[in-house]
Amino acid sequence: MAKAPAPSQRQSHWAIHVDMPTRMRLFSGIVLFVYAFTHFVNHALGLISLDALEAGRVWFVFVWRSTPGSILLLGSLAVHVTFALWKLYQRRTFNWARWEWAQLFLGLAIPILLVPHMLDTRMMATAFGVTDSYAYVLLRVWPGQAVNQTLLLLIVWIHGCLGLHYWLRLKSWYRRLLPWLLGAAVLLPVLALLGFVNGGRVTHELAKHDFWLKAVRLASNWPGELAEAVKAELTRYLLLGFALLLLLVAAGRGGRALWDRRVKTVTVRYPDGRRVVIPRGVTVLEASRRAGLPHAAVCGGRGRCSTCRVRVGKGADTLPPPIDDERRVLDRVGARLNERLACQIRPRYDIDVTPLLPDSAGPEDAEGRPVYTFGEEQHVAVLVSDLRGRWLLADNREAPDLVFLLNQYYRAMARCVEQVGGRVQRFDSGRLIALFGIGQGAAPGSISAMAASCLMANALRHFNEGYASELGKPLATGVGIHVGKAVIGEVGSYGQPTLTAIGDVTGVAARLQAATVSYRCQILISEDVAEWSGANLAGLPKHPVYTRAGQGPTMAYAVDDPLKLGEVLLKQAGRLGRKPARRRAQKRKAPAAAATPDTTIPEPPKDAAPEPAAEKANGAASPVKTAESKAGKAAGAKPQKAPAPKAEKSSEPAPAKPAASEPASPAKKSAQAVPTPRVAS
Questions:
Q1: Which of 387-391, 415-419, 444-448, 617-621 is predicted least confidently?
Q2: Cα separation of 596 and 573, whole Å?
Q3: How far is CA 449 from CA 51, 296, 434, 566, in A?
């Protein structure tokens, strides 16, 4: 098969305006809904009095009978009907959702009931000078046409509400306000009908008085026989014209079906081996519906929800580029380059597609999600915590009590993880796996993981104290922390996906946690975590941990007391939290030579003894001699004044500063403050 030509730029420019009928139909529908809303509010004033109805009509007529209002209203009515019929012609299949069928039949019933009412009011007022007041209208429709008017009100309102609901339900704010909006949507037509009924009954009683009836006929310029005959003829012709339009749409669909048999066909292949042969110009969503394959489309194939999106395999290069509306939706959900909306692509050559969402997808699936949820490789820190001796909890304990204690423990640990921005991957029989630094980097993730381990140790202590009478023996945990590259993504069945880290980093953290038993410590922190975080863990014991056969050991720092680790993190947070301007000022004051040792003396506390004059003149003593002097003081020896050493004869030279070409270590990449735990005293 010859390779299909690449889509031209001209095709993409033309495709921008393809969905214009949908936009026009939506805009015109909103205008008509606003008109119906204001009209029904005016009806509801009938619960007060007939005079209130007339007072509300003054403002209603002022808006909708003005020149701009008339153009907007009548133009929207014509546009909405035209593009609704065009959409009906475009649909290749009638495998619709139930709400789409309901909206279609309600929409087709509106002209049958609306045309007589519209001619009796708007046409009579425009062509014959009739003042169509509420008294005039109620005298003509009550009680003979009361049922028709009631049906018209309900059909118009339900049709409009269905359209707005299935358009706005993709918005999160709409779902939050849905209970209140539903109450208003039910209350307004009820009040409008009650106002209509009350106004009709009052008018019917007043019509028994000849003086009032003659006054209304005279004031409204009651239409004569000619006007009634014109209304009857126009009603017949308009309804006949609407029927002819429906027949024209049906004939167009039939002619297109005959033409499709003569044009070239396209094969759409699905992952389960099914193939659907369609004519060119049919969307992938319509192909799925033709074959009866389940395919999600919350918005009904209007290109708004993104739930119909598919991953295109073979043949992706033959598709034209996305139009503006499709690109906007794909960007909102963070779609990949080979993902498209099935309701928008019309293949001209054979393609392979894979639907990404099940047919049971809902409006919440249309919301945008972070890109990493679809799968992305990045540096993350993984914390694995295991509850030691958890099998002892089940001994001589009722099942509800066991589940209660485990839930309380898991909730306490999860709060610690979430407090520092982590994500709990899963709980598994006393084991907790948490991820840190997703979308942020290895440095903040490493510090957050160590901070979470301190918080978890503190929370476990409070848990043991609070449930001491039920536990009998305090619970203990072992924690392993490692950082590295992993593939992050949501994995699992639909409706219950779990953010998972796929890679060796989780296995290494689990081996570190298991090694806490051998080294008799609470936390084991890999050397990579210490380097990325920049935390000074040199004072902690360091042990090798073999994580995989045939590979070298992973060096890890053992933490016996989480309070010490918390103090280190607090110092690290203070060092990272210094203002950049102060650091830049210190760099400007520093000597130009890169290898010059730093001899800056820290400022002593206010209550410290004054320094000897010799030290002030010649500089600070070396760290080794300072330590020896402190050791002498501790042993009771009399401290002696140390002579100032010369820089070239120093027994322990200061480390040289790295050159500009030297690569930065992971610790230097950590330049932002991260949450640190509050260490309990």
A1: 617-621
A2: 28
A3: 72, 39, 8, 12
Q: How far apart are CA 29 and CA 106, in angstroms?
A: 14
* Residue-wise pLDDT tens digits, 302-345: 888 888 889 998 888 888 888 888 888 888 887 788 889 998 88
CB neighbour class for 43 (10 Å; exposed up to 12, middle 13-18, buried from 19): buried
Handedness of CA 25, 31, 35, 40 (dihedral sign): positive
Q: Are 26 and 166 in contact (CB under 8 A)?
A: no
Using CA atoms, how far apart are residues 29 and 268, in angstroms rounded to an integer?
35
DSSP 122: I
DSSP codes, 51-116: HHHHHHHHHHHHHHSSHHHHHHHHHHHHHHHHHHHHHHHH-------HHHHHHHHHHHHHHHHHHH
What is the rounded CA–CA span in Å between residue 498 and residue 99? 33
User: Residue 358: what residue type?
Assistant: P
Judged against a pLDDT cut of 60, whether residue 15 lies above it is answered with: no
Read off the tokens for 451: 């901070």
* Cis peptide bond upstream of 143, omega within 30: yes
Residue ranges and CATH numbers for the domains of the chain are: 19-256 (1.20.1300), 264-366 (3.10.20.30), 371-576 (3.30.70.1230)
